[in-house]
């Protein structure tokens, strides 16, 4: 979609008026692209936040869940229809999330932050190498959920592919569903209670260990779902998780760690900034933006732009 | 109801409780008094499973609960109102109350929970007014009420309270203590830990005095109230000065 925008630009012979409308079209074109990527970043960031809230740790393997979801769905799609493949990919990745927690995290009693960083980075490498072993280096993709890249429709001069609507629609659904889960169900409240005060939650009879496992499973599930919906646009490869983890982490920090509502806004900011950067900077600089923002935020305002200056919580990080 | 024999526990290499033996009968209010750092909180945390038992045993309803994790002990019917309230600050008052009732939901007693919430709101009308407020934004007294309410929602057979009067104004303390008496009248059993020994002994049936991890004295509340050592050490009466006058 981005690519088609770029060729359209050079193709036209233009009057001044046309140029204005063209610019406006590009503007919306980039905006839509930014929102699409922003949605994915937000989903990854929410994955970070859920585990952070439950355990106080940053799971640097979060991007691998996205990659696993996409890869598994591509493989399953050879044997079954797309919806079943996506469901299967989400379920399998969820199981991987549970196994990771039970095998590597659960038995650690009060691990230091540094130790957790090392462990989750190691896990991310482990998953990536396993994926390389299973799937090789080839780049894969799922078909568009509906239509194809050809059927993108024009919306006031802006090309919108149907997949973009899927990404945004499912993104909105995930955010709404998680909001309802955490605020309206007893299980969601138990998870929030554990993150608010673990000992008090246990004194209420809540099994805190299981809540941590559940947080890994939910993070894995939404990560995998994100991987499936973005896969037709960005493609997927054994190592496509890491850049997403960096972006998602940036967004999580930008919004303030643990704050999932803010992560949505922060995701949009990063997605749109990146998208528009192509307009003014060489495309190669696109990847630098996330890192720059990350460093800037960490130096200037570690509680995040939407943060309630709860910097104390970040201190042990 | 609760029987503790030669209980020892501590933190790391530090042994805090030394051969603590005590018991609580059904329907009693028993109080533990002792100076700062005597080990009162540690004792309650050990009984509720937050600290591991080193040696000795804890029998609750004749069954050993010494090595159970806290979440299991709550299901047996023993709840703790922890020191410093320990509410779920970012959650609403109502959510805190609902979470207190979690064992009941597990036992499929959702209807009973709804009735109990009404009962709790009748005892603590302030909490009903503030149902939707975040627990962390309540006043100290309201927080203490919520902490008690949350523990009561599990319908415990034994409710243990760690310094419920801490940091509260005298009038609020009076409220809290009258609620504790009311709980006993409704058939509850209460283990009350207090700095405020005088007030605690005034409503208790029996008491224990804990000093540097050991029980050094026990008796009925009246006996302890009239005991000279207790008066000197915990009730703040200067007997020597009184005698000279
Ligand atoms: N988490 C901990 N780690 C190490 N030592 C601890 C810990 N908690 C308490 N202690 C020590 O155990 C001893 C008993 O503490 P405890 O909190 O049980 O006293 P307390 O009787 O409740 O005192 P207070 O009246 O001040 O609440 C103290 O010497 C304290 O320093
Ligand atoms: Mg104490």
Keywords:
heterodimer; A: mainly alpha; ABC transporter involved in vitamin B12 uptake, BtuC; two-stranded antiparallel ribbon; 2 strands; B: 245 residues; alpha/beta; Rossmann fold; 6-stranded mixed β-sheet; 4-stranded antiparallel β-sheet; 12 helices; 42% helix; binds adenosine-5'-triphosphate; binds magnesium ion
Can you put this structure into words, describing what you see?
The complex is a heterodimer of chains A (317) and B (245). With 317 residues, chain A is an all-alpha fold. Chain A has helices spanning 2-11, 16-55, 62-77, 82-105, 113-135, 162-184, 186-196, 198-203, 208-234, 241-255, 260-280, 286-300, 311-315, and strands spanning 153-155, 158-160. Chain A has one domain: ABC transporter involved in vitamin B12 uptake, BtuC. In chain A, helix 3 packs across helix 9 (208-234). Chain B has helices spanning 40-47, 70-76, 93-100, 102-106, 110-123, 125-129, 140-152, 170-185, 197-203, 221-226, 228-234, 239-244; strands at 2-11, 14-24, 29-33, 55-60, 63-64, 78-81, 158-162, 189-194, 206-211, 214-220. In chain B, helix 3 (93-100) packs parallel to helix 7 (140-152). The longest helix of chain B is centred in the last third of the chain and has 16 residues, at 170-185. At the A-B interface, helix 7 and helix 8 of A face helix 2, helix 3 and helix 4 of B.
């Amino acid at each position: 979609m981005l690519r088609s925008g770029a060729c359209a630009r050079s193709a036209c012979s233009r009057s001044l008026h046309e140029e204005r409308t063209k610019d406006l079209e590009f503007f919306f074109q980039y905006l839509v692209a930014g929102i699409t990527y922003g949605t994915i970043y937000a989903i990854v960031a929410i994955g970070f936040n859920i585990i952070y809230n439950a355990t106080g740790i940053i799971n640097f393997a979060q991007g691998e869940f996205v990659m696993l979801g996409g890869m598994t769905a591509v493989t399953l799609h050879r044997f079954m229809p797309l919806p079943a493949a996506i469901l299967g990919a989400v379920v399998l990745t969820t199981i991987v999330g549970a196994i990771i927690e039970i095998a590597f995290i659960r038995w650690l009693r009060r691990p230091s932050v540094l130790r957790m960083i090392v462990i989750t980075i190691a896990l991310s490498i482990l998953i990536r190498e396993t994926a390389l072993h299973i799937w090789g280096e080839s780049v894969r993709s799922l078909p568009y959920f509906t239509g194809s890249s050809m059927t993108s429709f024009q919306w006031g001069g802006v090309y919108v592919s149907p997949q973009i609507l899927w990404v945004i629609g499912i993104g909105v659904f995930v955010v709404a569903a998680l909001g309802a889960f955490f605020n309206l169900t007893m299980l969601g409240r138990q998870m929030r209670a554990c993150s608010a005060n673990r000992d008090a939650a246990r004194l209420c009879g809540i099994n805190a260990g299981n809540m941590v496992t559940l947080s890994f499973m939910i993070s894995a599930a939404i990560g995998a779902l994100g991987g499936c919906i973005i896969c037709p646009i960005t493609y997927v490869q054994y190592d496509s998780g890491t850049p997403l983890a960096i972006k998602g982490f940036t967004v999580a920090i930008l919004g303030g760690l643990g704050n999932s509502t803010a992560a949505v806004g922060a995701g949009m900011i990063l997605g749109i900034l990146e998208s528009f950067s192509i307009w003014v900077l060489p495309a190669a600089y696109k990847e630098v933006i996330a890192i720059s923002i990350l460093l800037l935020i960490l130096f200037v305002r570690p509680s995040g732009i939407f943060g309630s200056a709860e910097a104390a919580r970040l201190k042990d990080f | 109801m609760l029987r503790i024999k030669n209980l020892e526990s501590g933190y790391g290499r530090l042994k805090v409780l030394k051969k603590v033996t005590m018991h609580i009968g059904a329907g009693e209010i028993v109080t533990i008094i002792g100076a700062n750092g005597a080990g009162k909180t540690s004792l309650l945390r050990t009984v509720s499973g937050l600290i591991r038992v080193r040696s000795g045993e804890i029998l609750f309803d004749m069954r050993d609960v010494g090595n159970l994790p806290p979440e299991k002990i709550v299901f047996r019917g023993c709840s703790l109102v922890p020191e410093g309230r320990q509410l779920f600050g970012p959650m609403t008052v109502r959510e805190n109350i609902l979470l207190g009732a979690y064992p009941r939901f597990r036992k499929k007693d959702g209807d009973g929970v709804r009735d109990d919430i009404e009962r709790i709101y009748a005892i603590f009308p302030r909490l009903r007014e503030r149902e939707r407020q975040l627990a962390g934004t309540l006043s100290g007294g309201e927080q203490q009420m919520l902490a008690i309410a949350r523990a009561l929602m599990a319908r415990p057979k034994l409710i243990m309270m760690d310094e419920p009067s801490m940091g509260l104004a005298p009038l609020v303390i009076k409220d809290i203590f009258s609620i504790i008496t009311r709980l006993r009248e409704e058939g509850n059993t209460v283990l009350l830990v207090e700095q405020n020994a005088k007030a605690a002994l005034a409503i208790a049936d029996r008491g224990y005095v804990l000093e540097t991890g050991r029980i050094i004295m026990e008796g009925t509340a009246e006996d302890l109230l009239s005991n000279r050592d207790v008066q000197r050490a915990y009730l703040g009466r200067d007997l020597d000065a009184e005698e000279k006058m």
